C-alpha cells in the first residue's frame, strides 16, 4: 500500500518526550539519511565556483544572486537541477526584499516579508518535484522551516536539521536517487543551501538560535562540519591532498580549501562574522585542531556530538514536527503510535517555564544549569578542569569587522 501522508504536527512538548523521539521511525530515518549523505560524499571535493565566496570572505561585498552561473549545472540530474532552481528562486527573493533601514542590533523585520514570499511560491515549486499532494505537504514543512524562524528572527542547527529532513524525504521516495546521482550533485545542493542560509544571516542580521555562546560548536551550523569532515576522509589509494587537521585554522589552508570543502568553508564564515582570538570565541573547534590528528576521528566525534547537541537537545528538536509519511511519530519496533502529551497541559508547562535568550525564547528557561556544557568527544580530559570565564559579549550583527586568521 502507498504510504499515507499527513500535515506534520508537534509531538515534542518537553524534555521527557526525547525518549519517545529516540524510539521513533522518524529518528531512525534521520540517522539513515545522515549516514547516506556521509558515505556518499566521503573523499569528494566540491567543484570550484559553486560556493559563493563573498559570504565567507572578510570585507567582501555580498554578491547578488544573479551573479551565480546556472549553466555549470546543466549536466546534473533533472531532479537535482529542480532542487537547485528552488534554492535559486529563494535566493533571488532576498534581492527583492532589502532589509529595512534604521538602527537594529539583530533580526531585521524584512526577513518576515521574505518568508511570506517564499511560502507563496513554495507550493508551485514542489509541484515540479512530485505530483502527490500529501508528499508535497510534508516536504513543504521541512523546506519552509529550513531557513530560520520568521517569528524569532534567528537561525540555528535545528533549521539545518530541517533541510536534512527535506533532502531525506526526497531520497526516501527516490526523487533524488542516492544510488544514481553523483556525489558532487549532492554536495552542490547542500552548498547552495548553506549559501542561502548564510546570506539570510548576513542580510537580515539573524540571531543564533539557541546558541550556547562559546560553549557550542558553532552559533549556526553543525551538519556542514560533518559534510566537510566526510569530504576529508579519503581511502588509502587516493592521491588527493588533504590538509592535516592541525593546519585547518591557518589562513593558507582556509584560502586553499574554502571553495571546495564544507568544513573549511564554515570556518571561513566564522572568521567573517567574529573578531578576536579564535580559541576564545570558538573553543570547541579550537580543541579539535589542537587535540586530534585524524580526520576519521574528527568525523566520528562530530557525529557523536550531533547526536547529543542536536538530536538530543529539547530546545533544538522541539521545533521538529512529524508527518505520517516521511517522519512518523511511530515506535520503530512495535510500529505503534507513540504517546503525545495533552496540548493544554503542555502549554501550561511551557508557561511555567519562562524561556531565555540562549534557549531561543522558547521551551526552557535559561539558567546556569540548563546551558549545555557537553564536552567534545575528542577533548582531552586534562585540557581544562572546568569552563573558563566566558567573555562578555552581547548579540552582535554579522558585519564585516573581523581580522584575518594569523598565518602559521
TrEMBL record:
Residues 343-408 are annotated as: Disordered. It is an enzyme of class 5 (isomerase). It catalyses: [protein]-peptidylproline (omega=180) = [protein]-peptidylproline (omega=0). Its EC number is 5.2.1.8. Keywords: Cytoplasm, Isomerase, Nucleus, Rotamase. The keyword Nucleus applies. Pfam families: PTPA. This is Serine/threonine-protein phosphatase 2A activator. It comes from Candidozyma auris.
Amino acid at each position: 500500500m502507498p504510504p499515507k501522508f499527513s500535515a506534520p504536527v508537534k509531538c515534542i512538548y518537553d524534555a521527557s518526550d526525547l525518549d519517545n523521539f529516540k524510539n521513533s521511525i522518524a529518528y531512525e530515518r534521520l540517522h539513515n539519511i545522515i549516514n547516506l549523505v556521509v558515505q556518499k560524499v566521503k573523499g569528494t571535493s566540491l567543484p570550484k565556483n559553486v560556493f559563493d565566496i563573498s559570504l565567507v570572505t572578510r570585507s567582501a561585498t555580498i554578491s547578488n544572486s544573479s551573479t551565480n552561473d546556472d549553466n555549470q549545472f546543466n549536466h546534473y540530474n533533472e531532479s537535482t537541477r529542480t532542487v537547485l532552481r528552488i534554492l535559486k528562486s529563494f535566493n533571488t527573493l532576498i534581492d527583492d526584499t532589502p532589509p529595512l533601514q534604521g538602527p537594529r542590533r539583530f533580526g531585521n523585520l524584512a526577513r518576515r516579508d521574505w518568508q511570506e514570499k517564499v511560502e507563496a511560491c513554495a507550493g508551485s515549486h514542489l509541484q515540479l518535484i512530485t505530483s502527490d499532494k500529501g508528499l508535497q505537504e510534508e516536504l513543504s514543512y521541512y523546506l519552509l522551516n529550513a531557513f530560520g524562524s520568521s517569528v524569532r528572527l534567528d537561525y540555528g542547527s535545528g533549521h539545518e536539521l530541517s533541510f536534512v529532513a527535506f533532502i531525506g524525504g526526497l531520497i526516501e521516495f527516490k526523487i533524488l536517487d542516492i544510488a544514481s546521482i553523483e556525489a558532487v550533485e549532492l554536495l552542490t545542493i547542500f552548498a547552495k543551501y548553506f549559501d542561502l542560509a548564510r546570506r539570510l544571516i548576513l542580510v537580515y542580521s539573524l540571531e543564533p538560535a539557541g546558541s550556547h555562546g562559546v560553549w557550542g560548536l558553532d552559533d549556526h551550523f553543525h551538519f556542514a562540519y560533518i559534510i566537510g569532515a566526510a569530504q576529508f576522509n579519503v581511502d588509502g589509494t587516493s592521491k588527493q591532498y588533504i590538509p592535516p587537521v592541525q593546519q585547518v585554522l591557518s589562513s593558507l589552508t582556509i584560502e586553499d580549501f574554502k571553495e571546495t570543502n564544507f568544513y573549511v568553508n564554515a570556518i571561513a564564515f566564522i572568521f567573517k562574522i567574529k573578531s578576536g582570538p579564535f580559541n576564545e570565541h570558538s573553543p570547541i573547534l579550537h580543541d579539535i585542531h589542537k587535540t586530534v590528528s585524524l580526520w576519521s576521528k574528527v568525523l566520528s566525534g562530530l557525529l557523536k556530538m550531533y547526536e547529543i547537541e542536536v538530536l538530543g537537545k529539547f530546545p533544538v528538536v522541539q521545533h521538529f514536527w512529524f508527518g505520517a509519511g516521511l517522519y512518523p511519530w511511530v515506535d520503530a519496533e512495535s510500529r505503534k503510535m507513540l504517546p503525545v502529551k495533552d496540548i493544554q497541559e503542555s502549554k501550561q508547562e511551557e508557561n511555567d517555564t519562562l524561556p531565555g535568550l540562549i534557549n531561543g525564547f522558547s521551551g526552557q528557561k535559561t539558567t546556569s544549569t540548563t546551558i549545555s556544557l557537553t564536552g567534545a568527544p575528542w577533548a582531552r580530559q586534562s585540557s581544562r578542569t572546568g569552563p573558563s570565564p566566558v567573555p562578555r559579549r552581547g548579540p552582535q550583527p554579522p558585519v564585516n569587522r573581523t581580522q584575518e586568521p594569523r598565518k602559521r
